[in-house]
Amino acid sequence: MVKLFVTDRQGREIEVDARRGLSVMENIRDLPASVEAICGGMCACATCHVLIDPAWAARLPPRSYEEHMMLHDLASFDPARSRLSCQIVVSEALAGLSLTVGPEEY
Ligand code: FES
After folding, report:
1. Ligand 1 centre distance from Cα of residue 77 (Å)
2. What pLDDT, on the 0 to 100 scale, is given for residue 106?
C-alpha cells in the first residue's frame, strides 16, 4: 500500500492506502465527494481531474498529448497542477503524494 493524501470536494483531508499498479483514479473514486471518472479511465472524459500539490507536480511523469488535450478545456485547468488521475499509476515513488479533487464542471 502507498499512502496518498487526498482533499475531497468538501475540503476534507483523507489518507488513502492506495494499491500499487492501479491508477490514482481507481484508488480514490469511491471516496465521498471524489472524482466521477465517467469514462472508466480511458482518457476521454476529464471527470477524474485532480490538482497535484505543487511540491509533487514536477515529480510526476509528464502529461501525454491526449491527457493535455482533455485537461486544456476545463475552466479549472491549472497548467502547473492539473492531471487526470486515471493516467497516473500508483507506485512506491508516489508515497506521500498530495492532491485535491478538481471541482465539478459538468
Ligand atoms: S476517467 Fe475519464 S479521463 Fe480519467
Report:
1. 15
2. 66
